[in-house]
Fold these 4 entries.
Entry 1:
Amino acid sequence: MTATLIADTSVDVDAEGFLTHADQWSEQIAEQIARENGIPELTERHWLVVKFMRDRYFTTGTAPSIRSLGKESGVPIKELYQLFPKGPAKLAAKIGGIPKPRGCI
Amino acid sequence: MARKQIVILGGGTGGTMTANRLRRRFDADEAEIHVVDRDNRHVYQPGLLFVPFGLAQVEEIVRPRGRQLRDGVLFHENEVEAVWIERDELLLDDGTMLPYDALVVATGVRLQPEETEGLTGPGWNERVFTFYSPEGADALRAALERFDGGRLVVNLVDMPIKCPVAPLEFAFLADWYLRERGIRNRVELVYSTPLDGAFTKPIASEHLAGLLNEKDVELVTEFNAGEVDGVGGKLSSYDGRELDFDLLVTVPLHGGAAYVERSPGLGDALGFVPTNKQTLQTPAKPNVFALGDATDLPTSKAGSVTHFEAEVLTENVARFLADKELDASYDGHANCFIETGFHKALLIDFNYETEPLPGHFPTAFGLPLLRESRLNHLGKLMFQWVYWHALLPGREIPGIGPAMPTAGKTHVPAHAS
């Protein structure tokens, strides 16, 4: 874990750049992480997913998987891949300032 | 105490072991024990892997559920309509209302191939198969017999799945089978997975990726299957990648039993039952317990897990009914044999905290861990006998307890996960 500066704020991140303290997050931080990961602007649909992820994380203690995102966030899986290319669950978690979703076992 | 009513949903590995253990524990005048299942076919599921290669027949791995239960356990061959946890009762499809003092959810998972676009469309059971059901495994056996070359793609759609190593074992055995038939050089074998490696746990993942490589199986990672074209032979991922196939062997999406979704407050969005990691009680209601594949626990969906859980769960159902504090001792212990072909197998052993490590099981003089050996293969073959004759009746297996043994393990520092 190391401290780094994102959007002029000092935050703690893991080796892959996921925030380790979800309470250090802000919308400005989200926007900057998004830009660094190839999403120039966060639309309303992006925010819907990011906020759903954070809510879920705070109520259950883990980030939702791509399947539960598709079932419960109101955004179908296909669109999730358009919004967050490659790995929607991972990328939305990173932008949302919560730990990387753990693969099941 | 007054005579208690215990209802167990599911007559598979977890339900059968739990019923038999509880039946031994309580006299007939202390508890009435019911087991409900929608059919009377108990499948020895590890056997399914061998069916496509002609190494086992479906009839050899299926027995009647009712016959695995001790005398005095009441078996209902019924679908569950719904459970009302607030009222401590459930409804069966023949109109029977069953009230309970304690409920055990052991209904495992349901395969959901229809949730992947095109998967059950044209080509299903013709060039697209799953070996996760007896019918599918048998259809695949016939297709493999006819197969004389081309691209064979193994795909696991998404986690969680039962026995997460089974698709890898399928790839290893396919390599062996095709070599035995002398046509391996005419087949491209591909293993595609949504994970970022061959397996979920880092040290085992490296070993298993090495084995795929040795056996000339191409590994495609972070592949989230979104659509199948069974006629054109194309598997597409959500991010636009495509894999051509002549034969596709899929492990479809898994969800909980259908009635879980019809039962208010019992399951999550995928139909799995949220369960306490250590006690196996559900947060939904103190008199509801769950084990095996039906739970949302962060451990493998595997028979060994269910076996270790059953010991803790049985104890806790008894403690709950006697108003005693629960035993919080389940540690996530899992172990599995991994068939690697050519009469060899690997063994892995792990729990919530410790990933699979090299060494020996259960002590320094036991079976080799994370290493191919003939002994492990024999262990895997012998296990079917142990399953029907010791595990299901609920007998103790000497030296194999619910807690993960550490004596024979080489202590490699666990990676942070």
Note: Chain A has one domain: 2-95.
Entry 2:
Amino acid sequence: MNQILYQSATGSSGEAGVQGSAPDAARESGKIRVITYNSCKPSLYSFPARREPAAVPPIPMSAMRPSAAVPGFSPQERRAAIVAGLKALAPTTIAIGVWGMVSGVAMVKIGMSQSLALAMTFLVYAGSAQLAALPLIVAGAPVWLVFAAGCVVNLRFVIFAAALHPYFRRYSRWRRLGLGFLTSDIGFVLFMPRYGDAAVKGTPEQTWFFLGSALGNWLTWQVCSVAGILLGAVVPQAWSLEFAAVLALIAIVVPMVASRPVLAAVAAAAVVGWAGQLLPLRLGLVLAVVAGVTAGVFAEKALDGKTRGARL
Amino acid sequence: MTPSIMSPASDALYVWLVIIALAACTVITRAGFLLLGDNVPLPEGVRRALRYAPAAALVAVIVPDLLPWSAGAGPVFDWRAVSALVAIAVMMVTRNTIAMIAAGMAALWLLRWLLG
């Protein structure tokens, strides 16, 4: 397993699952991590190695568009790929649905009008960023700070996009934009174990599998989110259903805390975030992120030294 | 996250600006690398550091919501913090988001009903 992933990193293309460019020394010192995609844990994904553009296998022009009739890829195969994506998604639909509904209810419960909540769910389509923005909206935080917080919360998608890039690089700008917009945690987690080691990256089968799971995810999310927006107006305030949104955010963080450096980052961010509440404009948030990243990096260095010392 | 009639959430222009900003976040983070990937060098040190940012940001949003400070009275206690701890315990045992949210809500309702 280790060896296979290592080879794919030193070959024409590296991918998420193997860390960085992979010299033997780094592997021996335990810096290469073999990743299993068993849940949405952004902290588990390493970044892919940089590749030279020349390493892309040549693909015929006829394959540039997934909808075009590609020789060797029939409509039946396309259907099969979409269905495979939907089938892979099926076990997670309840979780996606509950999440969508919680964010729908929460948006209405903080006082947003239903039309604004609908606009947010369709234009933003990012549950964690939406939920993270809600307390900031209630506090009246400046728009640039909400933007910055949303970008930081969404940073994991930069990692996902870096891993998906070899599969989608041959498409036009607009198609890449669309594929990117539809990338979700679950869509990525379903895609990578299936095609992470694929010899050829960017086949129509891969794209249609991705689209099948991504569109299924989108539909489930939006249907439940809209249901939550409609339901939110009916649910009594005394039920405090907006607390479910905070719980949903915690549910993202808990699986992220899979190593001691992340624990250090989270602890530092919690302390600074709590103490920094009296700062204007919710600037405590910015300080907390800086403190968290700093603590994480230092803890990583400190622990690296320790494990190396133990081995020697 | 205590809603009120005068909440900025009811200010349509402000919320629209927030929605546009967040939509930009979605596009930049999800599609940015797909569009520019061949031209953007991400140094290894930066990549490693960035892994800690999402968890830190989420915690920094969550904590003031659970343990708020009011400007005059200092730290305020709320049963939401205890309910969150219950939910975290359930999450660590079951690894199930739905069970976690259900347990957290049940704990909040129970604590408020029993202890005010």
Note: Residues 1-56, 308-312 of chain A have pLDDT under 50 and may be disordered.
Entry 3:
Amino acid sequence: MTTLRVAIVDDHAMFRTGVRAEIDGPVDVVAEAEDVDSAVAVIAETRPDVVLLDVHMPGGGGLEVIRRLHLRHPETKFLALSVSDAAEDVIGIIRAGARGYVTKNISGPELLAAIDRVAAGDAVFSPRLAGFVLDAFAGTIEIAQVDEDLDRLTEREREVMRLIARGYAYKEVAKELFISIKTVETHVSSVLRKLQLSSRHELTRWANDRRLI
Amino acid sequence: MTPPTATPYRRAYRPAERRLVGGVATGLADHLGVPVLYVRLAFIVATWFQGVGVIAYLLLWRFLPLQRPDLSPGLESATRRGLRSGSRTGPTEIAQTIALGAVGIGVLLLIQSTGRGINDGLFGPLLVGVVGVAVVWRQLDDVAWSRWMRETRGWAFASRVAAGGGLVAVAALYFITKEGGWGAALNLASALVVAVLGLGLILGPWITRLMGDLSEERRERVRSQERADVAAHLHDSVLQTLALLQKNAGDSATVATLARRQERELRSWLYGNDEQPGDSLVAALRASAADVEDTHHVPVEVIAVGDASLDPDVAALARAAREAMINAAKHAGVDRVDVYAETDGQTAHVFVRDRGVGFDLAAIADDRMGVRGSIVDRVERHGGTATIRSEPGGGTEVALSVPVRAPEAVPTPTEGVTP
């Protein structure tokens, strides 16, 4: 397996140095950037596999980076990394195309695992993000298989989200629900897809209430 | 589902940051809970009938207040410093609306050509006048908007108002020349009426805006004073924490707890709402988590979906959850406790989970008064359920739930009150 190439985008130099020290080695940190313009330039040039992206940054924040790069380089995966707990920004960056969200107090090994997961095309949901997502889709529980598939979570996806919000790791979720980790990953990815694609008006309204989109 | 706010009824607004023209369609769509496309379609179809759609649109534009996002201090500051992207209307939506508008105008012209539409002599000037009014009003909205954004208004402002005013004037002139065949007195009268109408259209919003701005400024002043107070308070508390950190530099557990407490405080001010422990289930859980963290030096992470007001049952649930947190922090020997609360309107659930040493339930179930009395019995007395799952080495999870009464105190989810 080749070493993953990672870019760190954050406006705090000290934080970049800290993350680099923690993950360089198992992965290859190929680029750093401190604002939107330099991030777009350096990512387009070095083509990393995974970009660790701060939510708040000069030039429009992580959202702007994804907006500018996502269509041109769909193979680059974004993982949001932030101290921001503002639901609107977290959901906003996921809706823009990030494959997950972790908070900055995450440990080195956990961050590496998250990078692997994102690089493999899976989604990384922290308990907090799972809570936001349940919140966003709240109110449409029962009937799963109606026409507007994108607009609601299936009961199974909801269960998975709930367990993640309760602090279960993917492995523990799998054990709890008697399914394989791969299946858990599939459910989480499908929730991510729904979150990104759904235009359900309740979701829009939720977003609207929290002033996003 | 926060407790009811000052305005219990829903109001329609024009969302300032998502409008294409006036924000009327978007605002209505939000209010009615239908896709914005349908609303636009309705306006356009209504326009085919003697321009009713346009009239309705202009009236709503005038009477729906512009809504500026009310952000938490942290977000507002981040927005001002350009650290986050402002919202933006997607290109597809713009294209869709232009296409819709083109079809609408096409059909309108078709109707005109059959002679069933608005009187031909009026149609041209009306069209020009409406566009002029739209340009001027949009500009006024932008001024109010940019004042909030604390940006200076530029050159474009004057020229655009001039362009809009010009269009309205052209329309008025056209009217008068059209009326040329009538007597001179009538001519003058109509000119006057049109002029007064034109002035009213242009100045009217200005005046209402001015009045609105006054109260807005007063509110802003109060808000900035409050902010200064809180900033000073935080400043002090951060300094205090830093001093304590230096003093306790050798004791990593204390350092971590102090740092975490400070983080929590800052975070709740920057991104949260200032909830009081007595307000709701989630507020009570957060307060308990903070206490447990301080006392036992174990981080407690609270994730909440939905909220319930603190009636006696829910209060018992919150107290039981607190005991569960204390137990986990004290006995589990872990560096993290997860709390998840979910309220769906009928039942409130709280899960307290740790990945710690766990215990054998069967062996101690009878003599552990703490667990029995303070957690299980307390919840069951209030008609709820409590299950404790634990195995030695496998961690512990306490699952609690009580039914939520559905009194007037709990607003229904359809109220549009944010959870």
Note: The mean pLDDT of chain A is 81.
Entry 4:
Amino acid sequence: MNAAPDVPAKDAQDERLEPRLQGALREMLTSNWLVTVAALLLALIVSGVLIAAADEDVHTTASYLFARPTDFLSAVWNSVWHAYVALFQGAIVDPTASTFAKAVRPLTETMTWSVPLILAGLGLAVGFRAGLFNIGAQGQIILGAVFGGYIGFAFGLPPVLHLLLAIIAAALGGAIWAGIAGFLKARTGANEVIVTIMLNNIAVYLVAYLLTTTAFKREGSNNPQSPPIDSTAIYPRLLGDDFRLHAGFLLAIVATVFVWWLMDRSTLGFQFRAVGANPSAARTAGININRIYLLVMITSGALAGLAGSAQVLGTEKVLTAGVAASFGFDAITVALLGRSKPLGTFLAGLLFGALRAGGFAMQSRTGTPIDIVLVVQSLVVLFIAAPPLVRAVFRLPSPGRRQQISPTPAPVTKEAAA
Amino acid sequence: MKLELRGITKRFGTLVANDHIDLVVEPGEIHALLGENGAGKSTLMNVLYGFYDPDEGQILVDDQPVTFTGPGDAMAAGIGMVHQHFMLVPVFTVAENVVLGYEPTTSGGLIDLPEARRRVKEISDRFGFDVDPDAMVEDLPVGAQQRVEIIKALSRDAKVLILDEPTAVLTPQETDELIAIMRQLKAAGTSIVFITHKLREVRAVADRITVIRRGKVVGSADPQSSETELASLMVGRSVSLGVDRAAAQPGEVALQVRDLTVLDEAGVRQVDGISFDVARGEIVAIAGVQGNGQTELTEVVLGLQPALAGSVTLDGKELLGRSVKEVLTAGVGFVPEDRTEDGIVADFSVAENLILDLYDTPAFASGISLDPAKVRANAEQRTVEFDVRTPSVDAHAGTLSGGNQQKVVLAREMSRPLRLLIASQPTRGLDVGSIEFVHKRIVTERDSGTPVIIVSTELDEVLDLADRIVVMYRGRIVGTVDASAATPDRDVLGLMMAGVPQEEAVKQAASHHTVLGEADIEAAEEESE
């Protein structure tokens, strides 16, 4: 082909991987909200089958299924119903609680859990819309927590300033970590998927190592953990000391609005989206796509770094090796479920926060393993990635695209026809 | 074999792609299916070839109704298709490609390659195709690849051959050879359905012409009809072919290209030391077969590719070594040759596409914040000015027809003061109406004093628009032809595009005219009478 762009390294490496990834990505982003809801419903149904299958009563009744099938069916119903009721009560509101504060605590827990999910999800969403499959939120959260945490416990500063500095440091940490992938992509064409995945691993071991050094290790403790974060650098609690909900949630709201403005209203976001939707056209229109790749990764990483700050300065208040939990990976799901749109990601983050908060209640009350929450999350993504399947199950109409039997042009002919 | 389509209707949702189409192809005739892009020609042929089920209607072969559930059935019934994009495996030999899917096997279950070669050779000899069965397909020129496709169809005993836009990828001389092949096949009793939107070819080769517009058969014509008649039938209104334009008033030289050399990634010289000038108020066409360095030339000027040596100055200022952004800001308007790939962002709205390279200008942004109201207002105005047919300025550009997409690109590039306009393949894949419009706008731009470079592989377009024609072959300039002096000889240009030096080309053309060239001369004589 004659149109030889001056990014040879990229072309050579990504040729096979990229179109498929981007195709799948696009598929996930363009399918409509109805499919999202349907996918969620389908995931809950399939998970219900698993809940029932794991239930003791269901096992017992199944052994005399043919003698008294109603026993079996009611056992199935009970197991699933109780599990999901517990999930709901643990995530939204618990009407059985003794006080009002206890009744609404689940919702505040959901909000608390959702903060890192939303922030990291927004970061990934920015990347996805710019065509960069940043899988490295996990590492970026960790680095955010390391930077933010260090400012938090190592310096004594006045209250507001201390927190502000710690937050900025966290964003910087994430930005640097993601920026490495962005820089390598822009300079050498290294595939961001692979680089960010590898950086995740490096971050995990980096924080484990740091916690053995004198700079980070808590004195007199045998556990690998940092000194506690100074109270001046902690996100203030929003609803008093009885609730864990902290000001990080406000940050998540601000970040959501910011991402909306960035992507839909700013000239920079215009370039992000143009590069994501058609890099060739963007280049032809004078957009420096390598610069954009770098900026996208920095923005994406900074948001993930903020998610790290929510952990270390909000809920955990100490830096440990497990500070990021699995938020970085869940954030991928959140961004995909939210169609990489700010509001969608916000809502998806809340939903996943609810699943997490409710999952604990479900496990303690009905004995349903919390892992089922992971199954639900995974199934949601699986179904969203396969809209035709969901549409077929719910008999939804397929999008009004014209059917095309485009003869796949063989490489020779492309050259010829071009 | 007689092939008949009766009342074929194919709908896609609310769109009726084929509306009760009747078509009869008699044995041994060349039947041209003429229509604009999107008229429903390809859908019809996909129905005929078994890709689509018709919603209504029947296909009859020798007066017997048949149903095809896939291309296999169609092939078995004696229908062969040569797609516009060839269906060949580049790293297979000709023989392997021809038998692919129908491999003759030896008793051990292995492919019987000698038999495959024999089949290719037999057909190749019968029609004088001159194709080596053992040649690797990727090494063959496009015209030869097309012949491989034809052999493939014939080897499966095709009695009706469908050729989908077969000349789109050929040089004038290759087109001439194809026409000869079509006539031979016809003489041997094969019917040919010839899908095209090129009027000249239709007149030269078809026995009967069926014109399709918006999914309906709007009439049939005989090959004696004039091009204007055919065009009017095809478009549904009277059209003026060719461009009404005054002679150029070239001013001072604005663009100077000197000894420009460009290497591709493999180190091959795609542009090899070329020099030419473009003056204000003139249109210079870079003519040539695709892949002779024109793409690289335009991309280097825009800053998309680096040059090895040479200089490109616009109004005395060097363009080489600058970023795309700087070149655009210097007043270069650029219409890329691959509109969907480089010209528009399909997932962006029309309004966004109209500011793709202007988003950061004060007209649309204050600081780093875009002004949606201004973007919208601009889009409303531009779409009217450039007659972009879109449901709204918020519609995704990808949903527009090719012609309207191209108008969006033109509207964008012409919405700032230009010091140079470069348009590559400005009308590729467009319908007659859009071509008229685009050509008119380009001439208007020229008349306002802008130097214009047109890169085109279409001789018709080159002859219509150019004030001067620079013919490129293998990265070099074969010659420059003054288009204003006299009607340039299409055969001379065709030979030059094949690399024959100008003087030699004039000699050769005088001794042997191509079918289309003769048609040109006849037309000119008729006019003068």
Note: The first strand of chain B starts at residue 3 and ends at 12.
